[in-house]
Amino acid sequence: MKSQRILVLMHETLVPPENLSGVSQKQIDEFRTEYDVVQQLKSSGHQVRCLGLGDNLAELTAAIKDWRPHVAFNLAEEFQGRVSYDQHVVSFLELLRQPYTGCNPRGLMLSRDKALSKRLLSFNGIATPGFVVFTRGQRIVLPPELQFPLFVKSVSDDASLGIAQASIVHDMRKLKQRVGFIHEQTGSDALVEEFIPGRELYVGVIGNQRPQTYPVWEMDFGSSDKNGNAIATRKAKWDRNYRNRHVIGSHAAHRLAPSITKEIRSMALRGYRALSLTGYARMDFRLSQAGRLFLLEANANPCLTAKEDFATSAAHAGDDYASLLERIIRLGKAYQAELLS
Fold first, then answer.
1. CATH code at 36?
2. pLDDT (0 to 100) of residue 229
3. What is the pLDDT of residues 215-231, one digit of tens each?
4. Average pLDDT, whole number, for the chain?
5. How many domains is the chain partitioned into structurally?
6. Does the structure show a pLDDT above 80 at 100?
7. Which residues contact 219 (CB under 8 A, 6 or more apart)?
8. CATH number at residue 152
9. Has residue 169 been placed in a domain?
10. Of 100, 116, 143, which closes a domain?
């Protein structure tokens, strides 16, 4: 791809430095994705500008008007402190007729609302754990079809916010405690779903009208796994010391039957389309101990750090980091909002 003017959008606190000299590992972990993307785009010969978004869009409007970027590379995951506002940033870009990378506003909204997305998945015949949503102040009464153990999480937040081993509950007392915790700590409704012991599998999907899957990836919980009951807690995903201590990582899924591989890729594509996703996404699954697949949720615009799941699975398929970012840019420039049905 010839040199492009690329405006990289991110949170105002995550604008990376030009180099990592004198920067602590803890600081690097905060902006690792932004740094990796910006450095690779520059290495690929593009003209790159970073724009940190805070609580208004005036600077974004000015940057687009004055610099006329070929594409906005969207790494913004929130706006005005709200993760649910990320969809409005891309809606604004569409109003400005500015090409951008990643998912469209409808896909962001549908995948963000975990309860709504699960209803859409079920409507389309895609297996997902049974669930119920509890709002603040609502009496906690379980539907008869939901049996312990259950899993409690926020209905809208991502990045494993509020998820710990205590999210798996085995009785009504613990359930009430955890629902209250989600209400207080995340400020969102609590989604309570059937817990599926087993393997945690991820499938990267990339594309607009003709999406494709990357190889099936697996979360290896190392010494933290107890009979398939380990989950992707916030510590398991983001705490470097905890991950090193328990030897937690991810890799290409081993010893999957061909029929399971075929089924999980088919479910990933069906879920991607059911939720109107475009650009790229990571679909999260559990493979039960009985060999049944469940689609847990879809993550639009997943982490693009060079050594994280999405990029490493892409590299396994032949799309190295540079190629992956170029592909994402091409998809962003080719996306046409009016074709989303």
1. 3.40.50
2. 82
3. 999 999 888 887 768 88
4. 94
5. 3
6. yes
7. 200, 201, 202, 232, 236, 248, 250, 309
8. 3.30.1490
9. yes
10. 100
318: containing domain: 197-339
Residues 87 and 56 in one domain: yes
Structure confidence at residue 85 (pLDDT): 85
Beta bridge partners of 50: 8
Residues 79 and 143 occupy one common structural domain? no
Mean pLDDT for 49-60 is: 93
pLDDT at 84 over 80: no
d(CA 267, CA 23): 42
Whether residue 179 contacts residue 190, with contact meaning beta carbons closer than 8 Å, is answered with yes
Residue 157 lies in a domain: yes
- Tens digit of pLDDT for each residue in 10-36? 999 999 999 999 999 999 999 999 999
96 located within any domain: yes
d(CA 285, CA 262): 14
CATH number at residue 260: 3.30.470.20
Enumerate the H helices of 187-292 as residue ranges: 234-238, 240-246, 258-274
Band (341; pLDDT cuts 50, 70, 90):
low
Same domain flag for 159 and 261: no
- Strands of the 5-11 sheet, one edge to the other: 47-53, 5-11, 71-74
DSSP structure class, residue 15: P
What digits encode the pLDDT tens for the residues 124-138? 999 999 999 999 989
Residues 60 and 90 in one domain: yes
Q: Give me the phi and psi of 110, to 5 degrees please.
A: -65, -40
119: in domain: no
Is pLDDT at 82 greater than 90 in this prediction?
no
Cβ-proximal residues to 285 (8 Å cutoff; 6+ apart), any chain: 200, 201, 202, 203, 264, 267, 268, 293, 294, 295, 296
The token pair that represents 27 in the structure block: 């600081």
* Residue at token pair 């201590």: 245
CA gap 209, 109 in Å, rounded = 19
**pLDDT at residue 159 tops 70:** no
Q: 49: which residues sit within 8 A by CB, 6+ positions away?
A: 5, 6, 7, 8, 63, 67, 69
